[in-house]
Specification:
single chain, globular, 7 helices, mainly alpha
C-alpha cells in the first residue's frame, strides 16, 4: 500500500532527463509536460490496483487499500501541490479515457508551503512515537536490522518504554 501511495509520482522521474538535457539543442521536457499527467489519473490507478491485487496474498483487501492510498495521494496533490512557478497542477483524473474532468482547487497551496511542512512534521512525530512505543518502524519494510537499531536509538534517547 505504501508503494501505491507514492506510485503516482513515478511520472516525476521525468525531471532527471529534463535536467540533464535542459541546455541541449533538443531538451526533453518530460517533467514539465508529463508530471501530474501520466501517473495521476484513473487509468494509472487501475494499473496500480491491479498490480497490487496480483502480487498480494490478501488480494481484495490489498487492492482496495492500494486504491484508497492512490486516491489519497491525488487528493493531497489537489490540496497542496501547486507548482513552484505558482501554476496549479490539475489532476486529469479520467485519463486516458477522457480529458473532460480535471481536479483543481482554488485554495491549493504551494508544495513548499507551511501546511505541507506542518503535516510532514506531525506525521514524522507520530511515526517516531509509534516506533518508540511499539518497537518497530517503517524501516522494518526495508531492513529488520536497521529497524531494530532505529528503535534502540529512540529508546536510548527518550527512555525505554514502560509496560503498564
Amino acid at each position: 500500500m505504501t508503494l501505491a501511495g507514492v506510485a503516482p509520482d513515478l511520472d516525476g522521474l521525468g525531471a532527471i532527463p529534463e535536467i540533464l538535457t535542459r541546455h541541449s539543442a533538443n531538451p526533453l521536457n518530460w517533467f514539465s509536460e508529463y508530471h501530474h499527467v501520466l501517473g495521476h489519473n484513473l487509468g494509472f490507478g487501475i494499473v496500480v490496483t491491479g498490480a497490487s491485487f496480483l502480487v498480494a496474498t490478501r488480494r481484495w483487501k490489498t487492492a482496495a487499500l492500494a486504491l484508497v492510498t492512490f486516491h489519497l495521494h491525488l487528493l493531497c496533490d489537489v490540496a497542496g501541490a501547486r507548482g513552484p512557478d505558482g501554476d496549479q497542477w490539475p489532476i486529469p483524473y479520467l485519463l486516458p479515457f477522457s480529458r473532460a474532468w480535471q481536479w483543481t482547487w482554488q485554495g491549493q497551496w504551494a508544495l513548499n508551503a507551511w501546511p505541507n511542512f506542518a503535516i510532514t512534521g506531525a506525521a514524522l512525530g507520530l511515526m517516531f512515537f509509534l516506533a518508540w512505543s511499539r518497537g518497530y518502524s517503517p524501516l522494518e519494510m526495508v531492513s529488520q536490522k536497521a529497524d531494530a537499531a532505529f528503535v534502540a536509538a529512540l529508546r536510548k534517547r527518550f527512555g525505554a518504554r514502560r509496560l503498564a
